[in-house]
């Protein structure tokens, strides 16, 4: 003992202190890093749980939306036939396969029982309204003031025994129907054994009341007379929630357990469904090996109709070797070398913070992406085989409740604004009647609040397995703000052109009045001097040269005035265009033919100037691109409509090829025509020349096309 104490005493105190301090520091750092790793694991678990909660909530919302759509359909359609019921409900069940069945329960007064049974016997010879006894047997319904009878059910196969059942005799259904009738809102039954699974009480029904047309909902009157029946949707709770999670690929994840509990209207909360991962069972026994690790657990409350449900996601920490390998390595290295352990801790700490920052950025990025997706698709819609809207959902629908009443049950061409371009809608109808997909079709709609808004729709056709057409589905975006911006830009361009023409006219007039008079006076003086100096040869030659320079300057001035605004415009549009054509023929040698109507020469100055500029730009395009030998310009007037046609025999082109980047000739013509409230068509094809057709209204009040928000011009290929 003494020798051991002496050897210990000879151990250097700084080294011993460094060793003890290093071990203590490493132990402390190990605990801290382990806690950080555990917090990261807990954060990851919360993210796993939140995704599953969101998926379940979305699935419940979609299911309730489908129930509401079936209910609204029953409320709007009178005397639903079995074929209609099957045709409407089957696509809903195909989209939402977790529905066990859909049924319609009609309320039959006792006075109408006999007539109702006779009517139903035409389809089912042995049909009779029946009660279900507590032992599960059926017998003809005893007399009551009214009956709530299952009239339609889908799928019918396997559920034939339920047709004609008086559900007032089934306590679990009668309770839910009574609550739905009292509140005017959908109500859920408590869990019970369904006909498909009678042993396990894991099924439930959602009752949605169907009102008579014009009924006052949520009122005492509605509760006692205006409800004609109930649409009923059946669910098998475990299958419903498992399908929802599986469709989102969320039945996976390390150490995760998902439990579903059913609450009210059940007397006691009960476990209905539970799913566990295999990894949870393998790793749970290792959790807490090094320090106490509690089980992670998060719960989410949700409602299906008026029923309460609770989804619980739980999980335990991974094994120490899996979740704390960094801290264990730090502890081992730190025991051998304190300094290296401290350096490693700094690196590990930095990496942990970087990883947390990256995770936070990823979550923020994912959240922004979800918001962008929600904003980019204002609403989702579906149409039936008759191209009538059957379902709409999305942000725009939530913000405008009256939109459903405006759209559901109608076709797109029935809701379009009355002043919209008929040819464009006709083209769209041909496309959808040919069962072709379409993208970014734009048209205006006037809502029930008299506010007109523009939308852009994209859709694709739907077919069943046999190739039969089922309808369309797609998305719609609100582009009203973009259309308003386009309108503002066009108005600004129109204002700019007007100011430019005024400035041209003013500059040309000032050049003519001021500079022209000065040059004319200067020429007169030079001419007089030239006439008086024949005897002085040198001076005479100089005055002759001055006269030539003055004449050249006056010619250049006239050319500038003509480029700015030809004075011939003051003589009428016919004279101005004839002058322009003569100048073009002299400059290019291309033959031009003018065809005039006698009553088309007196026009408003604004229209005349625009037509002159259009002819000027068209002839420039012919010279640059057409390689034509002949041009024909026709102008005729029929009542309040003026039509100008400019045709060349050049090389032509495809219509879409005329829209080249940084080529604004045709676009400028279209904007000028649009500003005057007219229509511009371009007809061309390779090797067939090009025709510009312009229609303007020149009589009555002037109404610029910007008020209609129509397109500037249409391009099409006649071939």
TrEMBL record:
<dbReference type="InterPro" id="IPR001610">
    <property type="entry name" value="PAC"/>
</dbReference>
<feature type="domain" description="PAC">
    <location>
        <begin position="439"/>
        <end position="491"/>
    </location>
</feature>
<protein>
    <submittedName>
        <fullName>CHASE domain-containing protein</fullName>
    </submittedName>
</protein>
<dbReference type="InterPro" id="IPR050482">
    <property type="entry name" value="Sensor_HK_TwoCompSys"/>
</dbReference>
<keyword id="KW-0418">Kinase</keyword>
<dbReference type="GO" id="GO:0016020">
    <property type="term" value="C:membrane"/>
</dbReference>
<dbReference type="InterPro" id="IPR006189">
    <property type="entry name" value="CHASE_dom"/>
</dbReference>
<keyword id="KW-1133">Transmembrane helix</keyword>
<keyword id="KW-0902">Two-component regulatory system</keyword>
<keyword id="KW-0812">Transmembrane</keyword>
<dbReference type="InterPro" id="IPR003594">
    <property type="entry name" value="HATPase_dom"/>
</dbReference>
<dbReference type="Pfam" id="PF02518">
    <property type="entry name" value="HATPase_c"/>
</dbReference>
<dbReference type="InterPro" id="IPR036890">
    <property type="entry name" value="HATPase_C_sf"/>
</dbReference>
<dbReference type="InterPro" id="IPR011712">
    <property type="entry name" value="Sig_transdc_His_kin_sub3_dim/P"/>
</dbReference>
<keyword id="KW-0808">Transferase</keyword>
<dbReference type="InterPro" id="IPR000700">
    <property type="entry name" value="PAS-assoc_C"/>
</dbReference>
<dbReference type="InterPro" id="IPR035965">
    <property type="entry name" value="PAS-like_dom_sf"/>
</dbReference>
<dbReference type="GO" id="GO:0000155">
    <property type="term" value="F:phosphorelay sensor kinase activity"/>
</dbReference>
<dbReference type="InterPro" id="IPR042240">
    <property type="entry name" value="CHASE_sf"/>
</dbReference>
<dbReference type="GO" id="GO:0046983">
    <property type="term" value="F:protein dimerization activity"/>
</dbReference>
<feature type="transmembrane region" description="Helical">
    <location>
        <begin position="325"/>
        <end position="347"/>
    </location>
</feature>
<feature type="domain" description="CHASE">
    <location>
        <begin position="101"/>
        <end position="273"/>
    </location>
</feature>
<dbReference type="InterPro" id="IPR000014">
    <property type="entry name" value="PAS"/>
</dbReference>
<keyword id="KW-0472">Membrane</keyword>
<dbReference type="Pfam" id="PF07730">
    <property type="entry name" value="HisKA_3"/>
</dbReference>
<dbReference type="Pfam" id="PF03924">
    <property type="entry name" value="CHASE"/>
</dbReference>
């Amino acid at each position: 003992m003494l020798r051991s104490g002496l050897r210990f005493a000879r151990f250097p105190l700084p080294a011993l202190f460094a060793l003890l301090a290093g071990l203590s520091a490493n132990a402390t750092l190990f605990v801290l890093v382990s806690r950080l790793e555990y917090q990261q694991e807990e954060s990851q678990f919360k993210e796993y749980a939140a995704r599953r909660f969101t998926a379940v909530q979305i699935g419940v919302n979609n299911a309730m939306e489908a129930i509401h759509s079936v209910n609204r359909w029953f409320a709007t359609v009178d005397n639903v036939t079995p074929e209609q019921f099957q045709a409407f409900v089957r696509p809903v069940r195909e989209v939402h396969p977790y529905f066990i069945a859909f049924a319609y329960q009609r309320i039959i007064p006792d006075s109408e029982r006999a007539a109702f049974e006779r009517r139903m016997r035409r389809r089912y010879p042995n049909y009779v309204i029946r009660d279900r006894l507590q032992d599960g047997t059926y017998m003809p319904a005893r007399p009551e003031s009214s009956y709530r009878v299952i009239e339609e059910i889908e799928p019918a196969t396997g559920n034939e025994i339920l047709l004609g059942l008086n559900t007032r005799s089934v306590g679990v259904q009668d309770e839910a129907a009574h609550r739905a009738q009292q509140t005017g809102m959908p109500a859920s039954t408590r869990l019970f054994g369904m006909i498909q699974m009678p042993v396990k009480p894991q099924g439930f029904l959602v009752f949605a009341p169907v009102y008579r047309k014009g009924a006052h909902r949520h009122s005492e009157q509605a509760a006692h007379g205006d409800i004609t029946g109930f649409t009923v949707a059946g669910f098998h709770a475990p299958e419903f929630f498992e399908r929802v999670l599986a469709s989102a690929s969320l039945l996976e994840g390390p150490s995760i357990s998902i439990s579903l509990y059913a609450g009210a209207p059940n007397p006691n909360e009960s476990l209905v469904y539970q799913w566990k991962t295999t990894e949870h069972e393998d790793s749970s026994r290792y959790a807490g090996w090094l320090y106490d690790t509690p089980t992670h657990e998060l719960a989410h409350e949700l409602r299906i109709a008026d029923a309460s449900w609770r989804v619980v996601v739980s999980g335990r920490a991974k094994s120490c070797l899996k979740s704390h390998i960094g801290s264990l390595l730090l502890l081992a290295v730190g025991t051998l070398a304190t300094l290296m352990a401290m350096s490693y801790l700094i690196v590990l700490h930095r990496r942990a913070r970087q990883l947390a920052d990256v995770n936070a950025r990823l979550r923020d990025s994912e959240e922004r992406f979800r918001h962008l997706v929600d904003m980019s698709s204002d609403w989702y819609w579906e149409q039936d085989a008759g191209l009538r809207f059957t379902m709409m959902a999305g942000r725009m629908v939530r913000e405008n409740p009256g939109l459903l009443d405006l759209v559901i049950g109608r076709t797109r061409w029935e809701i379009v604004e009355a002043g919209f371009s008929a040819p464009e809608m006709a083209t769209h109808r041909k496309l959808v009647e040919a069962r072709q997909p379409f993208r970014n079709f734009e048209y205006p709609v006037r809502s029930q609040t008299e506010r007109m808004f523009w939308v852009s729709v994209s859709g694709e056709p739907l077919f069943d397995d046999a190739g039969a057409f089922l309808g369309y589905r797609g998305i719609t975006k609100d582009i009203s703000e973009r259309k308003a911006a386009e309108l503002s830009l066009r108005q600004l361009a129109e204002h700019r052109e007007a100011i430019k023409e005024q400035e041209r006219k003013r500059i040309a007039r000032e050049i003519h009045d001021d500079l022209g008079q000065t040059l004319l006076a200067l020429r007169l003086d030079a001419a007089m001097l030239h006439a008086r100096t024949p005897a002085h040869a040198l001076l005479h030659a100089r005055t002759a040269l001055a006269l030539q320079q003055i004449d050249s300057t006056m010619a250049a001035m006239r050319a500038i005035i003509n480029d700015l605004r030809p004075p011939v415009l003051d003589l009428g549009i016919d004279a101005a265009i004839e002058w322009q054509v003569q100048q073009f023929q002299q400059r290019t040698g291309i033959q031009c033919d003018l065809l005039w109507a006698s009553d088309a020469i007196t026009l408003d100055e604004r229209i005349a100037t625009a037509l002159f500029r259009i002819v000027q730009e068209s002839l420039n395009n012919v010279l640059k691109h057409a390689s034509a030998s002949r041009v024909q310009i026709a102008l005729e007037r029929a009542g309040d409509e003026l039509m100008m046609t400019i045709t060349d025999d050049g090389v032509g082109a495809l219509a879409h090829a005329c829209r080249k980047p940084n080529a604004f000739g045709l676009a400028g013509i279209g904007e000028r025509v649009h500003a005057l409230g007219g229509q511009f068509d371009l007809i061309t094809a390779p090797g067939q020349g090009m025709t510009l057709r312009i229609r303007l209204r020149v009589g009555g009040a002037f109404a610029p096309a910007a008020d209609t928000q129509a397109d500037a011009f249409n391009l099409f290929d006649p071939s």
